[in-house]
Amino acid sequence: MKHALSALALTWALAASAATPPRASDYIVAVVNNDAVTEVEVQQALANAREQARQQSGAMPNEADLRRQTIDRLVNERVIVTYARDMGVRVDEPELDRAVANVVTANRLASVDALRERLRADGLDFKRFRDNLRDQILAERVREREVPARIKVSDADVDAMLAERGAARVASQELNLAQILITVPDGAGEAEVAERRALAQGAITRVRGGEDFGAVARELSQDTGTRAQGGEMGQKAADRYPDLFTAAARGVAVGDVAAEPLRSGAGFHVIKVLARKENAGMTVTQTHPRHILLRPSAELSAETARQRLGDLRTQIDNGRISFEDAARRYSEDGSAQGGGDLGWVSPGQFVPEFEQAMGKLDIGAISQPVVSRFGVHLIQVLERRQAQVDLRQLRDQARNVLRERQYDKAYAEWLEELRGRAWIELREKPER
Asked: With bands split at pLDDT 50, 70 and 90, how would you rate the model's confidence at 392?
């Protein structure tokens, strides 16, 4: 899922206005390159952070620590935005107009003029609102471009991950095996077991000596299901055979017989590999989901976004709005225009928290709000199917999983480098 324009900008602006202290108390708290962080902005962000802490735990954090963390977060935002400007990242006016129009639609306003009036009533300037929206787009765009480019996943890393999954190679095979079964009665003594084993070993000797396996099977095998077919069990996926058989067949060439009889609860088995087909991939369960995404900002808590999506889920359940229409109106993902439809996806294509929640849903069910790195989601599963995935897709999935594991570390390192190159000046409150 890609980053998208934050249609929560209006909600952010309204929340910020509610917490805005008197303008007379405003002063510059920090300078980042050519941008300033003001006390008004700090107080706005602090008010939201306190509310988020209250909603999540009911306990208020240490005020000094919370202020320090808030200033640090605002400085980070300025570092990214000023870097984006220096790198020539631009948001043209038509694109910004579309972003504002999305905010209007998402917040059920009649027009841009209605948005202006709403902002004015809450003491907010429309130009400042547009500038903040532009900064959000700039920051998201430069993050999307630069952080993934820093993540390197080698072919050796992919090979190691596929090896960890172990069963992938077995499941990618189809086998046609034949057997001669020499049964061992329950409670048989050692002598009888040895006699039966010798009979199975004799069958191996006869086949390796040139006799036809099918003829020997029809003569000796006590498996009534396959004896008439010369012991042939049929072509099928390797994982549909007993593990004992697939393990024995692994080292046997097509046309050969396993050197030793296999012992199971039924008796002794003589196994011949009639055919082996190596598929390019394996069968996986694919899912067809759709979602609604809200992206919390520094000023809008994840808890508030969760509450909004919880309310929206209730409306969908009650038939007041369809999931598809809700996604078009409120989702901040690029899939919104298509009603939140994400198409058919294989395991490993989404971030773990999204994929885990999706995997637990029955077809047609809607999740509770799910928090991921991208924001807060409502997820609905439309369909599931079994699909053949080729080796290239398997490798791509493994690569995506490995890249996702490295994202947070790569982002932190990138931000630290930007801060190291930026001019940052923290200022004390001026004396009166």
From this structure: confident
Which residues span the domain enclosing 357?
283-394
Q: How many CB atoms lie within 10 A of CB 178?
A: 22
Distances (CA, A) of 265 to 181, 188, 369: 11, 12, 49
Contacts for 49 with CB less than 8 Å, ≥ 6 apart = 61, 66, 69, 70, 301
Domain boundary among the residues 278, 310, 334 is at 278
Q: Taking a C-beta distance cutoff of 8 angstroms, is the pair 221, 181 a contact?
A: yes
**In the 8-state DSSP scheme, what is residue 229?**
G
User: And the tokens for 394?
Assistant: 């398997």
Which of 349, 341, 351 lies closest to 393 in space, CA to CA?
Answer: 349
296: Cβ contacts below 8 Å, ≥ 6 apart: 8, 302, 304, 305, 375, 376
The answer to whether residues 248 and 362 belong to one domain is: no
Residue labelled with tokens 């699909």:
387
Q: Which of 233, 349, 237 is nearest to 288 (CA)?
A: 349
- For residue 134, the surrounding DSSP H or E stretch is helix 126-150
Give domain status of residue 386, yes or no: yes
For 4, the 3-state DSSP assignment is coil
* Gap between the Cα atoms of 417 and 388, Å rounded: 43
- Sign of torsion over alpha carbons 326, 328, 330, 331: positive
**How much is the CA Rg of the chain, to the nearest whole Å?**
32
Write phi, then psi, for 358 (nearest 5 degrees).
-60, -40
| Ordered DSSP codes for 28-69 | EEEEETTEEEEHHHHHHHHHHHHHHHHHHTSPPPPHHHHHHH
pLDDT, one tens digit per residue, over 47-89 is 877 877 776 656 677 888 889 999 999 999 999 999 999 999 8
- Map tokens 């009650």 to a residue: 318
350: amino acid identity, one letter: F
Q: How far apart are CA 181 and CA 179, in angstroms?
A: 6
Give me the CATH number covering residue 105.
1.10.4030.10
State the pTM of this model.
0.52
3-state secondary structure of 78: helix
Q: How far is CA 261 from CA 219, 245, 264, 267, 379, in A?
A: 17, 11, 10, 9, 52
Instruction: Work out how many domains the chain is built from and give that number.
Output: 3
Name the strand (E) or helix (H) holding 331: none
Q: Are 93 and 64 in contact (CB under 8 A)?
A: no
Do both 80 and 112 map to the same domain?
A: yes
